[in-house]
Amino acid sequence: MNTTAHRSSTPRAVALPLARRAIAIMLAAAASSLLTVAVAQAAAPADTSTLVREGNRYYAQGDCALAQYFFQEALKRDDDSAEALVGKGRSLLCQNAYSAAVDALRNAIEVDDAYVPGYVHLALAYQEQFVFDPASYGGRLSDALEVLQRAENLSPNDPTVQNTKGIVLYQAGNLDQARTTLERATELAAAAEMSERERSTIQVNLGRAYRELGQLELAQQAFRRGVVLDPSSATAHNNLGNVMYRLGDCSGAEFELSQAVSLAPNSLSAVSSLAIAMFECGDVAGSIPRFEQALQLDGAVFVPAVFTYLARAYVDQGRLDDAVRRAQQGALLPPESAEAHYHLGTVYDARRAPGDVEAARRAFERALELDSEYGPAREALTNLR
Fold first, then answer.
1. Do residues 202 and 168 touch, judged by C-beta distance below 8 A?
2. Which residues of 187-205 are buried (b: 16+ CB within 10 A; e: fewer)?
3. pLDDT reported for residue 13
4. What does the pLDDT read at residue 385?
5. Which of 45, 60, 205, 318 is the most interior residue, by most CB within 10 Å?
6. What are the backbone dihedrals phi and psi of residue 354, each rounded to the nearest 5 degrees, phi first?
7. For the whole model, what pTM was predicted?
8. Which CATH architecture has domain 303-385?
């Protein structure tokens, strides 16, 4: 395989998802995208390599629609360009056009079956399909592993192949295999031509595998290496802060999570994690602005715990009406949980407005309907007067 010829589109290390996305279709700024594409059409360069380079540049900037345009222009000049097909597939994938992305990436392998990035990104597309709709695409993780085996046969010492394989194994719940594979990826990455950011991403992936296995000290070490390799990575700081919190290091956790929020103020994961750490570590008043910030971010409705935590913080500060409102939201948002209904009951019990005792009783009973073994709700129901 001629690795030099394809170096410009060697896949970057890809991060594991923090959690399954509750929604995959993102709203696009259609008018703006059409305008930028129109401008690009007026000044599109002629040669394939330049078009691919421009596509990669816009992809790195997050403008997937414009990146797709440049890759498609490249394919008009050379429809057998595996690099352009992979670029098109990646840009479609980041627009959640899963089937079209899979088709483009399969085409890349057909035109050049020795082009390893084609296999890597096809495996990632399969994994994304599974995350988006596991009921319809339940076999996609197996498909991804089969594709990666072909890539591994071509390039057994490629850290991006091992990293991607580790991601898929992690997603499939094969944590021991994921850990072993990601450990190998980090070893290979140390000697490979990779950026520090890519090495950082692999360390973060390894840290997540350690964390899920309960090996928190090893996870902390991996996440810290991720931060050292790429201090600008909000993801690395966020994960390090989370595991430090779980290890009982409140000051360290709050520092790292604050760094993550500074780097990515629109990250729901970072903001909510910082708020929860502050709350649980005793700074309840200080957590309130962070929880309120989190509720303004995209996706907050898919994290009911943020509403419930904010309700508890409001109770601590005597804002009982606000607490009831947020606790109601936390209890009603799917998926329902015994814990959310329990906390709703405690908020009603704290306020004690007319009808609140019966409302608290109903909330505790609902918590026990959801989980008959949930002790705090049973105890609260017994003590309710």
1. no
2. ebbeeeebeeebbbbbbbb
3. 56
4. 86
5. 205
6. -55, 130
7. 0.86
8. Alpha Horseshoe (1.25)
Both tokens of 92, joined, read: 């479609």
How many whole angstroms separate alpha carbon 359 and alpha carbon 380?
13
Burial class (CB in 10 A: 0-12, 13-18, 19+), 365: middle
Q: Cα 90–96–101 angle (5° rounding)?
A: 40
Long-range contact list for 376-385, CB < 8 A, 24+ apart? 376/342, 377/338, 377/341, 377/342, 377/345, 380/342, 380/345, 380/346, 380/349, 381/345, 384/349, 384/357, 384/360, 385/357
Give the C-alpha separation, 67 to 199, whole Å. Answer: 25
d(CA 137, CA 24): 14
Q: Compute the Cα dihedral for 267, 272, 273, 275 and give only its sign.
A: positive
Alpha helix (H) residue ranges in 78-195: 82-93, 98-111, 116-132, 140-154, 159-171, 175-191
Task: Count CA atoms closer than 13 A to 253's CA, side-chain side.
Answer: 21
pLDDT value of position 46: 64
pLDDT value of residue 191:
94
Classify the phi-psi angles of 352: left when phi > 0, otherwise alpha if psi is within -120 to 50, otherwise beta: left
* 385 CB-contact burial (10 Å; exposed 0-12 / middle 13-18 / buried 19+): exposed
* Distance, CA of 290 to CA of 221 (rounded, Å): 27
For residues 290 and 267, give the distance between their C-alpha atoms in angstroms, rounded to a whole number: 12
Q: pLDDT tens for residues 40-92? A: 554 555 699 999 999 999 999 999 999 999 999 999 999 999 999 999 999 99
Spans of the chain below 70 pLDDT: 1-46
- Cβ-based neighbours of 123, under 8 Å, separated by 6 or more: 144, 145, 147, 148, 151, 164, 165, 168
Which amino acid appears at position 363 of this protein?
A: A
Q: Domains of the chain: which residue ranges?
A: 303-385
DSSP 168-191: HHHHTT-HHHHHHHHHHHHHHHHH
